[in-house]
Amino acid sequence: MIKKIISIFMAAIVVTSFGAYAKNAVDSLIGSNAQYIILATITNVSDNMFELTKGYGIKHPENNALPDTFSVKKFKYGYCVEHADNYNNPQMGDNIIVAIDYANGAYHVSSDAFMVDNVSSSAKVKIPEELKNYDCMNELLALGYYIHSDGARREYEYSGSSVYAIDSGGEKFEINKRMDDYVVFFNKNKVDLTDKPPIPESQNNVSRTIILFLACGMVFGILCVISANYILNRKDG
Predict the structure, then answer these.
(1) How far is the C-alpha of 17 from the C-alpha of 11, rounded, in Å?
(2) Which bin fits 15, alpha (ψ -120 to 50), beta or left (φ > 0)?
(3) Cα–Cα distances in Å, from 21 out to 17, 25, 112, 160?
(4) DSSP label at residue 119
(5) What are the residues facing 163 on neighbouring strands?
(6) How far, in Å, CA of 127 to CA of 135, rounded?
(7) What are the residues facing 159 on neighbouring strands?
(8) d(C-alpha 188, C-alpha 131), whole Å
(9) How would residue 232 be classed by pLDDT, with cut points 50, 70 and 90?
(10) pLDDT computed for residue 92 by the predictor
(11) Model pLDDT for residues 46-58, shown as the tens digit of each residue
């Protein structure tokens, strides 16, 4: 009996920690006290360093601008590995959102980082497709809304599959209904699932088009014959 109780207790701890992982990772950005929160592109990779080229700045001191490009120590993404493995290794060309601090003559990553689809103020957070049905997706949806609010919305409430942004007056409003504005799903090849090639016309549709074309041609031909006969008959008359 004691072993059963311990097992249940441990399982509860594990489930709780899984649910908290992504939330803490996202909160490390949304609730960050870092000097800078920016969107950037990884433009070079060396043994121990990433070169970042800055894009849109969500948080940046006016009197202490970041250089256009700077280097930081290599880091991992913050996607919850319990549900989406093999997504946390950044590569050259990735667009990201990350918090940055400057200390002791160097720039340092001071939060978890996540991928975005571009580095403008309208960027969407990129989410591995495996996370689509898990709670940790909700925190990433909040991060997407955080970007679109220019960093103004820093408080969120999660209730089941619903995510609520909380404004400065304490009013809550659900953001799930406009999910496509804030996030985009991608697969293991890092292909955005919204960037699908056009669906080719089916063979049945092609066949129907050909039959319709031939039918129109036959009707036109019959009308031409009838018209010719009518003209000849009039001349004979």
Answers:
(1) 10
(2) alpha
(3) 6, 6, 11, 16
(4) S
(5) 158
(6) 12
(7) 162
(8) 12
(9) low
(10) 96
(11) 999 999 999 999 9
Tokens of 209: 């088009």
Residue 114 confidence (pLDDT) above 90 = yes
What DSSP character marks residue 61? Answer: -
DSSP state of 79: -
Residue indicated by tokens 């969120």: 156
Is residue 10 helix, strand or coil?
helix
Q: Which helix (H) or strand (E) holds 52?
A: strand 49-59
Residue from 181, 1, 186 nearest 79 by CA: 186
130-147 burial, b at 16+ Cβ within 10 Å, e below that, comes to bbeebbbbbbbbbbbbbb
Q: Rounded to two decimals, what is the model's pTM?
A: 0.70
Instruction: Name the pairing type of β-strands 49-59 and 36-45.
Output: antiparallel
Q: Are 79 and 87 in contact (CB under 8 A)?
A: yes
Pick the more confident residue, 71 or 85: 71
Q: Is there a contact between 138 and 158 (Cβ–Cβ < 8 Å)?
A: yes
- Could you report the per-residue pLDDT of 145-173, keeping only the tens digit for each? 999 999 888 888 888 888 898 888 888 98
Beta-bridge mates of residue 157: 164
* Contact indicator for 28, 111 with CB cutoff of 8 Å: yes
| Cβ-Cβ contacts under 8 Å for 78 (sequence gap 6 or more) | 22, 25, 26, 28, 88, 111, 112, 113, 114
pLDDT in tens, 165-216: 888 888 898 999 899 999 999 886 667 766 543 333 344 444 565 566 566 6
Judged by phi (left if over 0) then psi (alpha if -120 to 50, else beta), residue 132 lies in alpha
